[in-house]
Structures are given as C-alpha cells and as structure tokens.
Amino acid sequence: MTSEPTTATPTDVTITTDAGAMPAHRWLPPGGQGPGIVLLQEIFGVSAYVRRRAADLAALGYVVVAPEVFWRLGVTTPVEGEDALTRGMGLVQQLDWPAAVGDATAAVEWLRDRDEVTAGVGAVGFCFGGGLGFNVAAHLEAEGGPALDALVSYYGSALPGLHENLTVSAPSLHHFGLADSFIDTDTVRRIEGSLVAQPATVFETYAGADHAFDNDDMPWHHPAASALAWATTTEFLREHLPTA
C-alpha cells in the first residue's frame, strides 16, 4: 500500500440509483482507506472549490465521494461564468428534492459497501449541499437504517424550510454567518433554536461572515471565518469519525 498522497487526481465513478447511474468523483486518502465522507455540492456543482475541499478531507484520512447531484437535469459539469448564480439557483428550482435526497442517500450506501471504507460514513455539505445533507441524515434515521456517523453543514440553504419538521440525532455541526445575504440573522437564530434542541448538535455562528464564506472563489469569502470553521470541522470529524 502506497504512503504517497493520492488526493491530487480523483477517480470518476458511478453510483446506482433508481433512475440509473449517477456520476460521482472519489478521492482516496494517503493510506488508500479510511472512514467515508459524502461531500455535497453547492448550487454550482462539483466545482474547483468543492474538489479542493474533497482533497482536503482526503488528506485528513477520509475516502471522499462527491456525487453530481444535478445529473437528473443533465448537468454534470460545474456551473460557471457571470450568470452562474442565476443558473445555479434555476437548477435548484427545477430539482426534484426527494429524488436528490434519494441520490445522496445512495452515495452514503455506496460508500458503506466499499472495501476501502474501513469505518463509519459521514456527510459534509455546503449551501445547497448543507441542507441536503441534513435531510439525508433525517431520512436515514426515519427509515431505520444505519445513521450517519457525523454531519457537517455549512450555511444550509434549505434549512429554513426543514429545521422545524426534521430531527437528526446523529452528531451534527452547523456553520452560519451572521451577515448572510440569503438567510437573515433572525432566521439563523430560529434554525439554531430548533437544532440545538436536538441531540448531539453543535451550532457555530460567525460575525461579519456572508453566505458561502468558505468558498475562496466567491466574493463572499471571509478568510477568518473560513479558517475557524474548517478547524472546527476537522476537530468535530476527528471526534465523531476518527481516521485511526
């Protein structure tokens, strides 16, 4: 087994769903095996930023898979360009949400079946993916199957419509900026009130940080909040989804 890092070039894979083969991308950790993480995209798809975060997680010792959640809409490449925000939001509006939850759940199950995944499976999601990950965690628990071992959600954009109706008992960490242009502070505080009443939930807020503050390709990037949130994320994952 090689000791050289294997995160630079992901492998394209497919995941079986009820509608066919969903494209996805897999990163292996330096040792070639470890716990699994499903990485759930923003509205811009599996972008260069998402790929960098996948490589970061793989470098920490995780087997990472990032599914192309927009695949049912015929979109399997990043949404880029000056109108990327408009097009990305349009894709989310067209998306069949229950189907997306099912597809992301299939990615969790796919990881659990992989020989290289030697421990539990968690999920990390950003924006659109943060809310999707929360719904997947709740869905797995409602179905009575194995729960996620850990969930990390960054400014989950669907949480305003989910937090009062779904319960997640798995260890979960939520990050929100308090200067979010899309989710106002009152809504953030209502989400916080709901989620901290659930078991094993950590809720972190960041003064002055906008939406997508972790994405260093976006104008909303907040370097200090990003660094602090990532440090908190890695510590949380080490506790609940240890690599050794």
UniProtKB/TrEMBL annotation:
The keyword RNA-binding does not apply. Residues 29-240 form the Dienelactone hydrolase domain. It holds the Pfam family DLH. GO terms for molecular function: hydrolase activity. InterPro entries: AB_hydrolase_fold, Dienelactn_hydro, Dienelactone_hydrolase-like. It comes from the Bacteria. Keywords: Hydrolase. SUPFAM superfamilies: alpha/beta-Hydrolases (SSF53474). PANTHER family: ALPHA_BETA-HYDROLASES SUPERFAMILY PROTEIN (PTHR46623:SF6), CARBOXYMETHYLENEBUTENOLIDASE-RELATED (PTHR46623). This is Dienelactone hydrolase family protein.
